[in-house]
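From: lab user (bench 3)
To: helpdesk
Subject: output format question, protein + coenzyme A

Hello, I'm new to running complex predictions and I'm not sure whether the block I got back is the full result or only part of it. Here's what I submitted:
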Amino acid sequence: MYNTLLTSLEENILTITVNRPDKLNALNRDVMRELDEVMMEVESNKDIRGVIITGSGPKSFVAGADISEFQGLNHDQGMDLAKKGQDVFFKIENCSKPVIAAVNGFALGGGCELAMACHFRLASENAKFGQPEVNLGLIPGYGGTQRLVHLIGKGRAMELLMTGNMIDAQTAFQFGLVNYVLPQEELMTKARAIMLVILTKAPFAINRCISAANAAVGGREGFTKELSGFGDCFDTDDMKEGTSAFLEKRKPVFSGK
Ligand code: COA
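Helpdesk reply: Thanks, we reran it on our side. This is the complete output you should expect:
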């Protein structure tokens, strides 16, 4: 039914697996469109009462937005790409049913942002988290500057955003980014077990927990700031250099222009 996602519905839990393992499940336009579609299905299908999002293969949850699609975009096209991504992730965050991220490897850039848009996260021991966009002359565009601050605090978020460094699963646990760290083979079992507990509760009450908890973290002004900052990067030589360097498998040389 989907080209870039695998879905399976068992015991009212829809498991969504981002399925581009040869590209470490990077989020290209097709994945984003299908994530949007599947979240509409989640809302409309009464048999779906909870969602688990994971990545295909043992290595990666999602290694970011697809960098090859950034090339050749101008300021407005960059902003438009980020706006569409933010909208899909708002749909996940505001889903009326519980959504858990089972992070089974790299959760970088858009992958970390996808995990953070879910209601909470579990990680396998090999998981790694980060917002490495600065390595590309970019900033996160799918809500990462906002949700990272909310989840781990401004100081830690600032360090990760500005260094582009990755953190391992244990550090993510210490920072409060993930609730559990598990051997990879236990990750989905634990995610399902937690979801099954949630599904024994009143769906209406769960729905109101989600909307009230989401309201605790404030408005959208910062997301708009992120969008314009993301677009601005597309006007720079450094963004062209950063993305080209990644695709050419070399280190970028930033000029400050
Ligand atoms: N966009 C597009 N392609 C990506 C990608 C991304 N975000 N992340 C990985 N890939 C591709 C690689 O280009 C490579 O493709 P190829 O086999 O056709 O050359 C393939 O996935 C495997 O990745 P590779 O880099 O060879 O694996 P690795 O184990 O050496 O490194 C990472 C893993 C995650 C450290 C590295 O892939 C990486 O840094 N990815 C980009 C992370 C990032 O900057 N994300 C934010 C984007 S906004």
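A quick orientation on your result: Strands lie at 5-10, 13-18, 50-55, 60-62, 99-103, 106-108, 120-124, 128-130, 166-168, 180-182. Let us know if anything else is unclear.
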